[in-house]
UniProtKB/TrEMBL annotation:
<protein>
    <submittedName>
        <fullName>Response regulator transcription factor</fullName>
    </submittedName>
</protein>
<dbReference type="InterPro" id="IPR039420">
    <property type="entry name" value="WalR-like"/>
</dbReference>
<feature type="modified residue" description="4-aspartylphosphate">
    <location>
        <position position="51"/>
    </location>
</feature>
<keyword id="KW-0597">Phosphoprotein</keyword>
<dbReference type="InterPro" id="IPR036388">
    <property type="entry name" value="WH-like_DNA-bd_sf"/>
</dbReference>
<feature type="DNA-binding region" description="OmpR/PhoB-type">
    <location>
        <begin position="124"/>
        <end position="219"/>
    </location>
</feature>
<keyword id="KW-0238">DNA-binding</keyword>
<dbReference type="InterPro" id="IPR001867">
    <property type="entry name" value="OmpR/PhoB-type_DNA-bd"/>
</dbReference>
<dbReference type="Pfam" id="PF00072">
    <property type="entry name" value="Response_reg"/>
</dbReference>
<feature type="domain" description="OmpR/PhoB-type">
    <location>
        <begin position="124"/>
        <end position="219"/>
    </location>
</feature>
<feature type="domain" description="Response regulatory">
    <location>
        <begin position="2"/>
        <end position="116"/>
    </location>
</feature>
<dbReference type="Pfam" id="PF00486">
    <property type="entry name" value="Trans_reg_C"/>
</dbReference>
<dbReference type="InterPro" id="IPR011006">
    <property type="entry name" value="CheY-like_superfamily"/>
</dbReference>
<dbReference type="InterPro" id="IPR001789">
    <property type="entry name" value="Sig_transdc_resp-reg_receiver"/>
</dbReference>
């Protein structure tokens, strides 16, 4: 899941980013409204965690612009006000959810995850390719009934390949969906991650390289 945090209180923004990354999400951050607005249009995020009172460009304007663009990106608006009127106003602007500060981080994570599921085509909770089983909700992967220990990036790469249902996923698409904006687009990190993932998946090989195009799962993927 790709998330953008737009928050001018740097300590809070950085804490949110660290916490969401620990949950396996690819997270970018902007510390003012103008930067956040630009980033939201350059990259297609699943969720934007958007502070309402921002310098440069108000959160209300960013939210309204995203809604008007027709993007699938979901907006979780943050505000220091917990009044009902303020909440209603934020939702009327097109925000998908609303969270008043201070908030419990577990609640923030749950809301971001719920919005992320709405931002992309619905995928079954369990993806299967041959004897490989990936449980998205439990974040568990097994092959032939044996649990596999994958890193967050390996899990997310495998998840994206399985969601493609046998289709080819390019390195650029994997960078966009799994890594954040700090990743060098010319890096070999995708290839390295694919190689380590292949080793952990074992034989017979499941991940195929399609020369000049990307990667795909060789076995047909079915839902459970």
């Amino acid at each position: 899941m790709r998330v953008l945090v737009v928050e001018d209180e740097r300590d809070m923004a950085d804490a949110i980013v660290r916490g969401l990354r620990r949950k396996g999400m690819a997270v970018d951050v902007a510390y003012d409204g103008l930067q956040g607005h630009e980033m939201a249009y350059v990259t297609r995020y699943d969720v934007v965690v958007l502070d309402r009172d921002l310098p440069g460009m108000h959160g209300d304007e960013i939210c309204a612009a995203l809604v008007e663009s027709g993007t699938l990106t979901r907006v979780l608006m943050l505000t220091a006000s917990s009044s009902v009127d303020d909440k209603v106003e934020g939702l009327e602007l097109g925000a998908d959810d609303y969270l008043a500060k201070p908030f419990d981080f577990k609640e923030l994570v749950a809301r971001v995850q719920a919005l992320g599921r709405r931002a992309t085509p619905v995928a079954p909770p369990v993806l299967i390719a041959g004897d490989l089983v990936l449980d998205q909700s439990r974040r568990v992967v097994t092959r032939g009934g044996t649990p596999l220990e994958l890193t967050n990036k390996e899990f997310c790469v495998l998840e994206e390949l399985l969601k493609a249902k046998g289709g080819v996923v390019s390195s650029e698409e994997l960078l966009d969906r799994v890594w954040d904006a700090n990743t060098d687009p010319f890096t070999t990190t995708v290839r390295v991650t694919i190689n380590t993932l292949r080793k952990k998946l074992g034989d017979p090989p499941l991940v195929e390289t399609v020369v000049g195009a990307g990667y795909r799962i060789a076995e047909p993927v079915v839902a459970s």
